[in-house]
Amino acid sequence: MGSVSNSSFDAYAAYGLSSSPPATPLPVYQHQHGITHGIRPLPPTPQARRKPVPMSSRLISFTTCELSDALIKLGSKSGGFIPGITLRSEGKICASAYTVQMALASHDSPPLSEHFVDTVPAGAAIVIDVPPQAQNAAWGGLMSAGAIARSAVGVVISGRFRDLAEQRELKFPVYARGHSTLGQSPFTRPVAINVPLVISPPDNSDFPPVTVRPGDYIVADEDGVVCVPQEMEVIVADTAEQGRAIDQLCMEDIKAGKGIKATFMKYRGKK
Length: 271
Prior knowledge:
Layout: H1 11-14, H2 46-50, H3 64-73, E1 86-89, E2 93-104, E3 125-129, H4 141-149, E4 154-157, E5 160-161, H5 164-170, E6 174-176, E7 178-179, E8 188-193, E9 197-199, E10 210-212, E11 217-221, E12 224-228, H6 233-255, H7 260-267
Helix pairs in contact: 3-6, 6-7
């Protein structure tokens, strides 16, 4: 299970970036619903619940591959890529993250006062971190229906989901690591929302975990899921745009028969 924290931290270090550009300090997140690990929340007001989450029109124009390439060029070790999570129900996602931490049912935190789907802001992408040993679904058809009613744009799950036929009928974008016939109870439950998540690879490999904070950009398509730190939106989009232009030149030369090695050397400066 990913770690839970409500303290500020260096996003550049969390993403394995070699250096931090001069920028304003990262904000300390005051969780919208007063929820932190192990603390019972106060109910949010309807106005707070319905506040729209802004979406980046620039990031949505890029593929996840282009965004990962940009993050790698900027020094990220992971390229923002969250391994093992794939498209399960049609639709691209590009939106600010609304995070949910799941834990095993035996976890000692008190229950949340509301269902997390009922607190999702309009326009948000729900990101759920699930204990790796859990074999049950953390998401189902009823949750997708509720998320649609609240104008959420999709869900990303580092675990399993279910009700595949319903998901396809609802056409709500679902990205997950697997599928199950089992519901949440009595296996797992949500313990915190709107907190930073540290999502590790599913195979305990040396690939770096990815930190997803509330408000970070989640972009998901047929190639996978990428997290872009919100304060890096502009530089990532600029870098992705430059990379796309170079790739287009490469494609033209390669189609003309000029060879991969020569083309890469010409436009990318490498073999």
